[in-house]
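Appendix C reproduces, verbatim, an entry submitted by the partner laboratory led by Prof. M.T., so that reviewers can inspect both the input and the predicted structure.
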Amino acid sequence: MPLHPPEAVREIARRLVGAGFPTFAVGGAVRDAVLGLPAQDWDLATRARPPEVRRLFRRTAPIGIAHGTVGVRGRDGVLYEVTTFRRDVETSGRHAVVEFADAIEDDLSRRDFTINALAWDPATEELRDPYGGLDDLAAGVLRTVGRPEDRFAEDYLRILRALRFAGHFRLALEPETWTALAVATPKLTVLSAERVREELLKVLSKSACASAALSLYAASGALAVLYPELGALVAMSAADAADAWARTLRAVDALPPSRPLLRTAALLHAVGMPAARTRDLRGGWRFAGHEQRGGPMAEDVLRRLRFSNAEVELVGRLVRHQSDLFPPDARSPIVRRWMRALGPDLLNDLWRLRFALWRAENPDAAATVRAGDRSHAREGAPTGPGATPADLLERWRMARAVRRQGAPLSVGELAIGGAELKALGLAPGPRFGDLLRALLERVLEDPALNTRERLLELAREELEADRP
């Protein structure tokens, strides 16, 4: 079967084969190429041991020598992973002890799923498929190589990989594979936070329809094990038909895969709803204040997954402020005060999230708007603080225009600071901050006041008023 890897892959394989070492392209690139998808990250498996690979190539890197992997720099400047054939000796559910093998069949036997147990010979263009992966791809089925109980017990990360592959490629999990996967989900707690995080980010960043995999997370029990905050949202939706989980999935899909952190905020935007739920006077449910409850909960989830502090803060702020919008007829000072409380760095992402939430709340109207009928953008049903896409767009433009005026939004942007206050005779202390904040309030109302001379005059007036 002819595939089309980079020429550098063929060159590396030719040199290894010429030295007497059978070499095959393996992994996701082969699978994707077979499916006619853009294939990236071409990896090679070979009978050559790491020292032999390093002798054959001048530019190498010891990526994982203990596991048989050497990085070989191709002529195109890309570092390709070349790994010695391996077989499993011992597994623990997290890590495997392996030994080197002499045949590609040994290497393929330790793969997780049949669709990944494909090997392609660049020299002969022969495709090795000992476990029927091509047939499973054609039938739209995901199944393990061998007994599913054994495959998942070898590495419980394969549970999450199965959910991701099935969602991304729209595959149905073969019944025995699904049953074994669901039974094994409680074991997901043995995985490191980093491995769980990376799987979630792959779901969010590699598929336009991330909801397919996330729905399988919920159906299998993996969501409740790893993300109990989201598990509570699913349970609430099922019990009360609140549909919050369905809206969450639609909101994630409404954002681009190129923005996985923003999709993370959409995924977690409603985690505070179960705790905030109360009955209204008509017997329905209200969720007042769920955003403020949800912000810290979202931050806890991300800290548990070892996201960076900056990422934790960004998502937490988006969840807290998801419903915060100024009135449509607001004057510029009100917009500036709103932006100060929000943080101007959040402006664009907040609007992207708001539009995604509107589409999730109004899927039929959103589809019509995408199809080109703008009447729904003018007359769509209200969704909280943002009534329609036209309303949201108008307020976004207003906020952008106000921001372009360059008015200060923090004390650090004022034309005077601590040095000038000291020169006025004010000793450092709490009054410093109080005075600067008072000046900022004046400037938020009238940005023209933000000059050194005018602020010093206002500061003197404030200090004079302090005197008995």
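The chain has 25 helices and 13 strands. Additional entries are available on request from the coordinating office.
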